[in-house]
Write a structure and sequence with these properties.
The chain has two helices and four strands, in the order βαββαβ. By secondary structure, it is α+β, with helices and mostly antiparallel strands. It has one domain: Lrp/AsnC effector binding domain/regulation of amino acid metabolism (RAM) domain (Alpha-Beta Plaits), CATH 3.30.70. It has a four-stranded antiparallel beta sheet. Strand 2 and strand 3 form a beta hairpin. The mean pLDDT is about 90.
Length: about 80
Amino acid sequence: MIKAYVFIVVKPGGRVNVTPEALMKIKGVNDVTEVSGEYDIILRVDVNELPELNALIKNVRLLGGIEKTTTMIGAE
């Protein structure tokens, strides 16, 4: 099991598509936290392998309104 955090920067006006509800529908997303500062949203995700993580990130970006993502894989 791979546990990771995906940090999201939303484009100005991009919040229309990038909602907690839309993000929670993506397979592997366990938690959505809206924050302020350098990032706008942090996702906590659990996937079985790296290709699944890559697919998850691609699905996040397909929502539109995303400027950039940064992923950090955690260890247990």
